[in-house]
Amino acid sequence: MGSGLGQGTGGGRTAKERTARRDVGPRCAIGCRGFRQMKRAWIAAVAALATASAAVLWWVTTGNEPRKALPDIELRRLEGGSDRLSEWRGKTVILNVWATWCPPCRVEMQALEKLSFDLDQGRYAVIGVSVDDNPVLVREFLRENVISFAKHIDPKRELTRGILDVHSLPQTLIIDGDGRLRQRVVGARDWHEGMLPSVGVE
Asked: Collapsing DSSP states into helix, strand and coil, what is residue 127?
C-alpha cells in the first residue's frame, strides 16, 4: 500500500520539489542554447586565428625585401667560366638556390624548368645555383632529370650564404631589372606563370 501511494503522489516528493524539478527544463534549455552559442563563437574564433596564423606564416616565408641593391655578383658556371648579374640587367631574375641532397629542392626543379621556358625570355631569367660540394652529383642530377636552367654552382657557399644571405634551402630570390633584391621566397613552391604575382613578380 505504501509503495502504491508513493507512486501516485510523485514518489513521496513534496509539491515544492516537484515544482523545482519542472523548472529545471526551461532553465536548462536557455542555458544549453547559450552554451551552443558560446561554442559556435569559440569555433569561429579558432578558425579566424588559424587563418591569421597562415597569413603570418606566408609573410614569413615570402617576405618583402626593402629593394636592396645587390652588387654585381659573379655566378660560377658548372661547366667552367662565370656570369655576372649585370648580364641580366633589365630582366626580372628568379634565382633559385638548391642542392641535390635537399628533397624539397628536387621536387620543385621540374616546375622551375617548365617556368624557364614558359616565361618571356626577353623579360625574365630563371637561374639555378647549386650549393653541392661535388659538381659530379649536380651534373648527374641535371642530366637524369633533363634540367637546363640550373647552370651555376657555389660549393663553398661564399656567394649564397655570404652575399645573398641564404641559410636554408630551397630559397628563391626575386631580383628586379635594376639589380635590386625584391622578394625572398623560402621553401619549395609549385612554380607556374599564374602564381608569380603572389611572390612579387610583375
From this structure: strand
